[in-house]
Amino acid sequence: DTKPPPPPTAAQLAQGRLVALAGNCAGCHTARGGVPYAGGRAIGTPFGTVYAGNLTPDADTGLGRWSAAQFRRALRHGVGADGRRLVPAFPYTETTKISDADADALYAFLRSLPPVQQARPAHALRWPYGTQAALAAWRVAFFRAGAWQDDATRSAEWNRGAYLVNGAGHCVACHGGRNAFGGTADAGFGGGLIPTRNWYAPAFTRAAEASVADWPLEDIVALLRTGKVSRGRAIGPMAEVVVQSTQHLPPAELRAMAVYLKSLPVEPAAPRPAAAGALPEMLAQGAKLYTDHCAACHGDDGEGGQ
Known about the structure:
mainly alpha; two-stranded antiparallel sheet
């Protein structure tokens, strides 16, 4: 299917812009100081460096020659216009859940951008990680294509939030952790290291980490919109997500995400070792060290900061 698509409607372009924001596509596909969506950003991985592609409609270096069907295939199956398997730094493991309507709207939005001629540098992955054979083996182990299916036992709002979080938002890509081969370690949002960022993405399922099960919906929405509420703050990579993605989403979308996140099960807290035996002078010394060296970034009570 290489026919040019019909001209997009204003509603379709608006829908595509929302999908791009929900997925924070510009976050990876914009080089520092570069044109939004023109690609070229270097993304470090434990296996080498990959470079984000050009999503503008330039005919030679971007999506200008891609058909809508080829674009859907990339999102759903991780296969490029030339038929080659894409590296899983592109989160097709999650975008496979994006609906055809949203995929076509995203395609229309990206093709509405000004074309920028900017070729993507070749990936610098250690052998054999960038080979088609290795990517095929990785897919057998860690990828299952499949469209999103609503849960008939849940509300429309819950399903919308689950779709955004698990599809375009690809939150599990960080909050599920990664195994030694770069596959998602825990599809249940159990938290994990982001090795190239030297950052830990906290678990959505642990009360002591990022669970919001006991939060009011309004506070969850506020955190996604502003990055700061009385019970917590978005810092590090999550602050970037708020700035570039979630703060721009409509209130109804944020509320749907909040409804879903609030519903996630909470794992029992692990017992903590008793603090018996800690001498008052030891506690005082620890408090002083924390105040002198940690509080400026982590807050007076360890609540985090921006």
